[in-house]
UniProtKB/TrEMBL annotation:
It comes from Leucobacter muris. This is DUF2127 domain-containing protein. The chain crosses the membrane at residues 37-56, 76-99, 106-127, 133-152. Keywords: Membrane, Transmembrane, Transmembrane helix. The lineage of its organism: Bacteria, Bacillati, Actinomycetota, Actinomycetes, Micrococcales. It comes from the Bacteria.
Length: 164
């Protein structure tokens, strides 16, 4: 069997992150981290669909809380569901690009996951918003797992090689 890649030390200097010679040799086969990352992005898209279903179920009470007229309510719901549908399709497209070895898609998804995690943290600490299974726990957990999978050395080396 081949040589196992060296695990990253907790006290590794930041300069080694940019050293291409320190990267493991790119594999011909897709690393598990890339496959898992793409699967997690698909799961994140499915989480968006579940969130939309939850929105539909709660729309009556949301509409009452916001005191929306029936015309305004339909427009607002359409805009929200349209955005969610676009977001879900974008996530599925990015998952496909990651699966195929797209480094740009990998980086874009990691930036999006970081922004989502940061927004959840700000909402929790500044606004006192609860993180529950019914609100953001599922998407937050998936974003963290996506970051862990797609930021691995194997994923970075394989996607960089695929574009080189």
């Amino acid at each position: 069997m081949g040589e196992r890649p060296r695990k990253r030390a907790a006290i590794e200097p930041a300069a080694t992150l940019f050293d291409r010679e320190a990267e493991p040799a790119p594999q011909d086969r897709r690393p598990v981290s890339v496959s898992g990352g793409a699967a997690l992005v698909v799961a994140r898209a499915l989480g968006t669909a579940l969130w939309s279903v939850g929105l539909l179920r709660q729309w009556g009470s949301i509409r009452a809380d916001l005191d929306l007229e029936p015309d305004e309510s339909g427009v607002a719901l359409g805009v929200l569901l349209g955005f969610q549908g676009f977001w879900m399709l974008l996530l599925l497209a990015l998952a496909w690009l990651i699966w195929r070895g797209g480094n740009g898609a990998r980086i874009l998804v990691m930036i999006g996951a970081t922004a989502s995690i940061t927004a959840s943290a700000i909402a929790y600490f500044a606004a006192g918003e609860e993180i529950t299974v019914h609100t953001t726990l599922l998407t937050l957990a998936l974003d963290i797992l996506i970051l862990l999978a797609l930021s691995s050395r194997d994923a970075r080396a394989w996607t960089r090689r695929r574009r080189a």
